[in-house]
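Lab notebook: predicted structure, single chain.

Context: the supervisor wants predicted structures on file for every construct in the current expression panel, including those that have not yet been purified. This is the next one on the list. No modifications to the sequence; it matches the entry in the shared construct table.
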Amino acid sequence: MSILDTRPIESALPTLARPIMSLDQNEDAIVGSLKQSLRQVETLGAQRAGLEDMLKEMKRKDDILPKLMTSTGSHEDLFKKEIAKYDHICEEIAQILRHRSNC
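Prediction complete. Output recorded below exactly as produced.
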């Protein structure tokens, strides 16, 4: 508390001098690799968010109750047909997972 009375708190904090850590010749390569990995994570995050939004919208619009009420055929066939609407999204998710596992 005594340092607060005589000078700003910033002057009592330790400062970081550059370089904090030297990685010699590999520093640029490591930083570049980390930046590339960060870009990949951001891209995957954007893809995931897009798919999530698409699924939410499809879910909001997807009401099969009227079809169930008027269906004269097999409910099993109706369910298979309705769930097939989501096949393309499942494939996109599988592609993202395959890409992520290759990184």
